[in-house]
Design brief:
The strands form two sheets. The protein has a seven-stranded mixed β-sheet, covered by helices on one side. Strands 2-3-4-1-12-13 form a six-stranded mixed β-sheet. It has four helices and 13 strands. Helix content is 18%, strand content 36%. The relative contact order is 0.20. It has 227 residues and is of the alpha+beta class. It starts with a strand and ends with a helix.
Length: 227
């Protein structure tokens, strides 16, 4: 499953543009209504909106051979979050990945993730790591099992691992929807919970063999009543 685009609302569009362009060195096309950020084969679209409760989580996939470069490069640009005393965070069993977490504008939890599945991807041999795509997008919902059922049955998006009541990754190594309960605290922070702000995701699913806009499905899932 490939994540083609993610659309989020931000309170301060200019500040978000500055961060992605000047701190992360990403190409940004902007106008008064929105900013389009190029993230490899994916696009991150930011539009102005009112402040909301919670924060979003977004992971950018990078070339595994550039992970050490990414670590040293990022450490001079943004404070890297720590888990158990380490800035380098390995994924759960079977995830086969290494990650660096950091906060972006309006406390969005950003991640650079290097997956073993992308080992054949070539280095750009530049000063900054090559971003392959938006690898993961976090989605906070009141009912995780119900959302998993909806996305699995209606849109043919399969679980990556066995889903639980509070956490369920859907998709594959090319792209994951990280579906979590709205009250769950985002790893590796101690206080930040999933956003209740506007979120739209457009994917290309090899299972369904078509491009799918998840806007309505996610809207229903995130605004439904808690159980």
């Amino acid at each position: 499953m490939k994540i083609l685009s993610v659309t989020l609302t931000v309170e301060d569009l200019a500040e978000s543009v500055r961060f992605y362009r000047d701190v992360l060195n990403m190409t940004v096309d902007e106008n008064a209504e929105q900013a389009l950020i190029h993230a490899g084969s994916s696009r991150l679209i930011l539009i102005p909106g009112e402040r909301f409760d919670g924060v979003h989580h977004l992971a950018f996939g990078i070339v595994p051979s550039e992970f050490e470069l990414a670590h040293s490069w990022l450490s001079t640009r943004a404070p890297i979050l720590v888990d158990n005393g380490s800035e380098i965070i390995h994924g759960p069993a079977g995830w086969n990945s290494r990650s660096l977490y950091f906060l972006g504008p309006e406390d969005i939890i950003l991640e650079l993730i290097a997956r073993d599945a992308d080992a054949e991807e070539k280095s750009a041999n530049g000063e900054s790591p090559r971003i392959l795509s938006i690898s993961e997008i976090g989605i906070g919902v009141p009912d995780v099992p119900a959302t998993v059922t909806r996305l699995s049955e209606d849109l043919a998006i399969s679980p990556f691992f066995e889903p639980g009541d509070a956490f369920a990754p859907l998709g594959d190594d090319d792209g994951l929807l990280i579906v979590v309960r709205q009250e769950r605290i985002w790893f590796p922070t101690k206080t930040l919970r999933p956003a209740r702000g506007s979120l739209a995701v457009r994917i290309e699913s090899s299972i369904a063999n078509k491009q799918i806009d998840l806007t309505s499905a996610i809207s229903i899932a995130t605004t439904g009543s808690a159980h």
